[in-house]
Structures are given as C-alpha cells and as structure tokens.
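Case 480 in the screening queue. Each case pairs one protein sequence with one candidate compound; here the compound is adenosine monophosphate. For every case the pipeline is the same: read the inputs, emit a complex structure as tokens, and attach any notable structural observations.

Predict complex for case 480.
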Amino acid sequence: MHEKCGVVGVSLADRAAARPLYYSLYALQHRGQESAGIVTHDGFQQHSQVEMGLVGDVFDEDDLANLNGENGVGHVRYPTAGSVDSCCAQPFSVSFKSGSLALAHNGNLVNADEIGDELADLGHAFTSDGDTEVIAHDLARNLLEEDLVRAVKRTMDRIHGSYSLTIMHDETVLGVRDPEGNRPLVIGELDDGYVLASESAAIDTLDGELVRDVKPGELVVLHQDGSGYDSYQLFDRDRTAHCFFEHVYFARPDSVIDDELVYEVRRNLGRKLWEEQGVETDVVMPVPDSGRAFASGYAEAAQEDGADVEFAEGLMKNRYVGRTFIMPTQDERERAVRLKLNPIKSTIEGKTVTIIDDSIVRGTTSTQLVDLIRDAGAEGVHVRIGAPAIVAPCYMGIDMATREELIASDKSPTEIRDEIGADSLSYISIDAVAEAIGRSRADLCLGCVTGEYPYDIDGEATDRDVTRPSIGNARAEAND
Ligand code: AMP
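Case 480 output:
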C-alpha cells in the first residue's frame, strides 16, 4: 500500500478546529486527491467526515459545523493506480478500551504485513489492508499497558519504514516522524494554538508561523488547550533518509523543508543543471508546472554565462486535466498529455528549444512533448531533467511505477534520448541534488535513483546497515 499523502493536526484554545483543518487540507491538496477527511474531538466524542474526493467536494458548511471540538486531525490521500477504495480513506478512527484514536499517515511501512499477522493472531480484526490500521491497533494495544509516550515509543520500535503521522488520542493531538525522517512534518504556531502539517504552506494558509521541522524520531504532543507542545526525542539515529524527491517534485515550491525554501532548491538545481549539462539553444522552456523553477534557474545561469538564450513559457497547461500520471493505460496517458499541454507555436517555430522538467518516470510526457514541439516547427529539441534518472521503484510512499515501466531501469540516457526522439537528453547528477538540498548523500533516501534503499526491503539492495528488529524481539525489548 503506497501512501503518499498529506497530514495535519490542530489544537486550539477556544475555537473549533474544523475550519483550520479544512484550509490546511486545501493547502495540501497536491499531496493527495483521492480522498479527504477530518476527525475532531469535542471532549466527549469524536466527529468525523471522511470521503472519496477533493477537499472542496468532501466538506460542506454543515459538515464543518458538525465537526465539533478544538482538537482534530486531517488527511488527504494520494490516488494510487488500482486502489480507489473507500476502505483506505483517512484519518482512520477507532475506539478501544484505551480510548479513541484517529490516525493520519503519510508514508509506507515495510513490515506492516508481519505486524498485522501477529496482531490478527492475537484477535485483532482488520477492516482494511492499509498500514495505518495496523499502527492504530498496535498503538491501542500498547495504550492498555503504558502511558501515551511509552506506547508510541513501543509502536515505533515495531513499525519499520516511512511514516509521518498525526494522531489524536481522545482529545490529544500528536505528531510523529519516523527515525529516518523520510517524509516531512512541521510544527506551526497560530495566534490561538498549534498545528502539525506535512508542509509549511499549510501553516501559511492559516496565517501561522513555521516553528520548525519535527525531528526524525521525535514525538510532538500538542497541549489540548492550544498553549504549547511537548517534545520527546524517542529515537536518535546517526543517519537520516530524507526523500530527495519531496524537494524535486512532490512538495509545494512555496513550502520550507529543513529551513530551505523548496522553490530555491529547485532554482538552484536548475542552475547546476546548466553548469553540468548546459546546451546553448534559442529558447529555454519549462514543462508546467513542475519544471518552472528549474527552468528559471537554468536560464538565469545560462544568461549569466553570456548565453544568448530566451526564457519562454511556450507550453500552456490545461489546469482542468488532472491525474494523467496514474491513468491505467499507456494510450490514455499519452492522450492525457496532449490534452494537458499545448505549445505556443510562435515561441517555438524555427528555433532550437530546451525543455526542462523535474523528472522522467515512464517517459510518456517527454516523448509526447518532443513530438509536439517538433510539430510546432522547432529546429531542435533538447531535454534537461532536474532529477537524476529514476531507475528503481519507490517503496517509501511515492507511487512511481513498477520497475518494468520505468524507462531508465534498463536503458542508458542515450537510449532514452533516442526513444523520446530528442536531440540531446541529460539529467542532473545525484551529487548536485545532495548539494542543492544541503545534505550529504548518506542522509538522503536515494532508492529510486540508485536502486539501494535505506530500509530493508525484500529483494532489494540497501545502502546502509539496517538492523531490522524481528517482530517478536521488538516486543520483548519493549517489555524490558
Ligand atoms: P512520465 O511521463 O511517466 O515520464 O512522468 C514524468 C512526469 O510526471 C513529469 O512531468 C513529472 O512532473 C510527473 N511526475 C513524476 N513523478 C510523479 C508522481 N509520483 N506522481 C505524479 N506525477 C509525477
């Protein structure tokens, strides 16, 4: 189950949490369009509204009015090919002897099946095949024996993989980031409370201030009355495994991750792309919207170097065509690119053009675009890409494609250049990515571009010494 999603949690002094949660989810809509949900707690009971669809469609005024309480969590879920099923919409909420829980999860566990099997043997019944329910049951069980912080620690001891979670236990909202910090999670301060969110853009939307990133392995517990938060550093690893693709593609450009504005990281990558792989052409054109920041950095660096190159928006995007990437057949995906992007002939005709995008996954977009631009009369078409070649699948929550579908899994850049029909094709180097993000390679998850993962995944290589606790051992240790 790949869950590339957006999560939020809010605790306020004297104001219903529903509306700030709703606006935050709007700000995080790019992280998931399949379903949206909010669960609040009014001191007596939970209220929830979780449905398939976009944020704007899932909640109406009556729903927001019924979501009582000053504490709550919310979620938007990314569409994954094949699983459009309301069983997995979140937050996942459930009541146990130990109280009520609502969980919103961004990421993907690599050992959910094992833990799920073990819990099923102990009598837990599951209503979905999602990781999040496994976390909920494990946490509920631990809460029977331990206080909140210890219970969370014990669950974190057992679950392995990528997770940024917002959780509500009765009225208490908490945020947890996995020990490797794979997915982002930030803390924000509002006039009358605190917020936890996948990205800082959600905090901006609420007129709040970004406090800082939740640290890898940290648990943050918001005070129910919105007066502050407590922090518990439950795990401290030597190395992190931040997903570089968040910076390159996934996060909003106006979000700040690890003190770096995503837009600036992308512009910097564009500049480095020019330094590493620059080619002189008449026009530099972004593939909207994901290529825009890269192309502006690239063109700026080229112009500073004295290249006679124009930066032009020569491809127009139809904003009403969504989800092309996950359309089930190749034919539909190709048609969708044509629907989505249309060239402006006068900026292209008779010119050599460099198009810049953030990534090539299956190669559908680049192939279609090179064709389109040649049809519009370009004399030459060069392609520059702001991510390294994606050679292997993502198991950590970004639904990319299978290895067979990934064009770079078995082809060299030259072969890909020929297949997409470009005059030249270059990718940014992995080192440049690490430099632009301001982290060493060792602290990034680079699985999809190296084929070596920071986690222990069946049948895949790892880039570190992962000591994955066996399930039984983890429980025994936690019992110590
Ligand atoms: P492709 O057409 O399969 O080569 O995919 C590359 C295009 O999809 C690029 O324009 C990217 O901006 C976009 N893209 C890359 N990764 C993803 C993803 N995980 N979900 C949706 N779109 C993506």
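Case 480 observations:
- The pocket of adenosine monophosphate is lined by residues 249, 287, 290, 325, 357-366, 398-400 (CB under 6 Å).
- Residues 469-480 have pLDDT under 50 and may be disordered.
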